[in-house]
Amino acid sequence: MNYTSRNSLTFTEEQAMLLETSREFCRQKSTIANVRGQLDTILGYDRDVWHEMVELGWLGIAIPERFSGSGLGVGGLVPLIENMGRAMLGTPLVSTVLAAQLLVRSGTNAYSESVLQRIIEGSPATIAFLENSDWGDKNVRCEIQGDLIIQGTKDFVSDAIAAQMFILPVMKNDKLVLALVDRQQLSENAIVPHVLIDQTKRSARIDFSGVEVISSQIIESDKVIKALGDVRIVGALLTAAEQAGSSAACLNTIVDYLTTRKQFDNFIGSYQALKHPTVDMLTMLDSSRSFIYHAATIISDMSIDRDMKIACHMAKAQATDAFTYTADRAVQFHGAMGFTYDCDAQLYLRRAQWSQQQFGDAAFHRSLLASIIFDD
Amino acid sequence: MSISKKELEEFRAGVSAWLIDNTPSDPGFLLPQSFMEVGTDQQLDFLREWQHKIWSAGYLGLAWPKEYGGGGVDPVFQTIVDSEMRRLGVPICFNIIGLGWAGPLIKDIGTEVEKKKYLKGILTAEDIWCQGFSEPDYGSDLGNVQTRAIRDGDEYIINGTKIWTTMGNYAKYMILLARTNQTTERKYDGLSFFLAPMQVSGIETRPIRKITGEYGFTETFFTDARIPSGSIMGQEGQGWKIAMQTLQYERGAEAGHAGGLAFVRVKMDDLLSQLQSTYRNGKPLLNDPLARDQLISLIMEEKAISLGEKRAHIGPLTNDYPLSLPLSHKLRSTEYARRMRKLAINLQGAAGGLYVGDDSALEGGFWQKAYFQSFSATIGGGTSQVQTNIVAEHVLGLPK
Question: What ipTM does this complex have?
Fold first, then answer.
């Protein structure tokens, strides 16, 4: 049993630049009015804003230079995604960069390299990880037969409506492989959108049955299993970064209210019953940010090692607890206003409930940490 | 003058070798885990000799000027000594009020006379120091202290009561906060700061028995005690400002400590290794999902605090709330320490009900005592509740 792990936390100039530019970008492009404007749209995001992000090169940040990306790694994405969370920006960026990570980490062929190219140019993509609601279930029931026809359904597929490319783990002759399915190949009613608790996000159930692929659309390397596991870890980290950003914005909303709303002749922020839990939120946020930037420091394009796993699991567990607590209290501390749809607290509460389940909840990540630390 | 990496490495190796050769063997009685727990003459004699030995070897006060008994070298050398002492788990340096608070204060703002008179004795452990800030009625509300100091010729006459005086019964000097003027508009402006001798008539100490069952600090009574007027630090009315500077050293926000370990640092490692032989429901405790979850949460907390110390130095990652990490550090680390020790007892099964002195107590009852003792840090130096107010008001900008 060894509970220690690397403890480094540094920040590069590139990261600092991305932090600054993305913060300003998100502040301008994703005002609360913009966010609310997308709640009832089918797509859930503004295509013009997406194209600007593509122009800024953000889709290629973590893609290695040999595939025409910037080669800044996952660590370059963290500041960016934290700011998207801060502004509650609706965007298929996380799904798309994860899809790119999976392609790169699984070993590429000419076809998947062309997909990477399309991603850099702004074509959204997503990974169909799940077949049921358990992030701990590693069994894959989706199959691909000898005639290269897929049988099976994937569920909770993020940004499925936006995605032009789907990457799905499937079994082929008892071996786990990846199928790269183009949106054009899906039958008309294959995508069934979910009604989500978070109206800024989109996901769907997708029936891939009957889709026929060609052999270049299948990635069969022995790296696939490890790459899939690694990308789940990266997904947990990126979700944590987004959560930390949203927690910070939610905390600011609370502080604004506590310093302007008066009851019994005092600003309500002067009451310790509100003051002390608000400090708890700050503390939890501080820990979240320390974990995500620690993870951003040590994570690389290499296969995810023990310490990187520890860092990412801790980041997701902490950011989830921080955000679910902060958003829950945001509603309560706004009093009767907090109970209304007009109060922004609801946006954060809904996002918190949605994001806690992405790539596994806090207790799930702590149980994975326990296995790494107590059982290995 | 830059110091080469090689020089530092050689120095570290030298420290490590010296500590291994010179750390005293187990004395056969329980040694204090912190400077606040020195309760017997036996413990005092042992620790005094140990600190003197460290200083004689040139490993204490390395960054203090040579003419006052220090080493006159870069602080990095003391940092190396301290980290080696921590790593090797040697006994603590007990004269912490002197080494960490009074000493740096005298070194930074004291007169030449004060520096000559006091600094060396702090390092050699010849002069033990204590602190007289809190009073029975004014703990968190320090600005309100009522102990009187009235000028009478070349003396001050002190009357009043101080409490929670760590090593008050052993100390030769006290850093004393007392009221020289009762008529000021602001209560703070009537306070003055003294480097007061303790061995004068009219000062009595009554040892206070702590929750641990041991002694370690006193209640200190001043009844017409006369101290030389020269023992005032600065001018009358500057007491609050000087006391606040002292608290900065105490809270670790200000550099200047002479060095040495104030506490035995307890790490999750110590807890985990003990729990490997503990059972719950007939199975190893470390297989129990609830215990695992609780332990992982604490491991995370420990790591978050140490990562926060690193993030605090990265400007772009702290500009939302620049004071958040430094101002919440005491709150976080002491509350973590308390919870960790509490869980350590909770997980022991029936043995958790035993205490120091029972043959079957795990680690001699170390965790039970450590848990009780941990309240000294969540209460002393500003309670966690007051610390939380400070963070709310100074970091988040919430109204008073």
Answer: 0.95
A214 and A249 both lie in a single domain: no
β-bridge mates for residue A203, sequence order: A158
- Which position has the token pair 């003051």? A275
Residue B228, helix vs strand vs coil: strand
pLDDT band at B276 (very low <50, low <70, confident <90, very high): confident
| Domain co-membership, A250 together with A322 | yes
Last residue of a domain, one of B98, B127, B156: B127
Q: Which two tokens stand for residue B140?
A: 């968190």
Name the domain count of chain A.
Answer: 3
CB contact under 8 A, A9 and B325: no
- Domain containing A249: what range? 224-375
Contacts of B175 (CB under 8 A, 6+ apart): B97, B101, B102, B105, B129, B130, B131, B132, B133, B193, B194, B195, B196, B246
Residue with tokens 């005491």: B330
Kindly list the residues from chain B whose CB atom is less than 8 angstroms away from the CB atom of residue A290.
304, 307-308, 310-311
* Range(s) of the domain holding residue B281: 268-394
Tens digits of residue pLDDT in B48-95: 999 999 999 999 999 999 999 999 999 999 989 998 998 898 999 999
DSSP secondary structure of B71-119? --S-HHHHHHHHHHHHHHTPPPP--HIIIIIIHHHHHHH--HHHHHHHH
Q: Which residue of B has its CA nearest to A13?
A: B316
| Residue at token pair 């020089």 | B7
Residues of B whose CB is below 8 A from A366 = 292-293, 296-297, 300
Phi-psi region of B160 (alpha: psi -120 to 50; beta: other; left: phi over 0): left
CATH classification at residue A74: 1.10.540.10
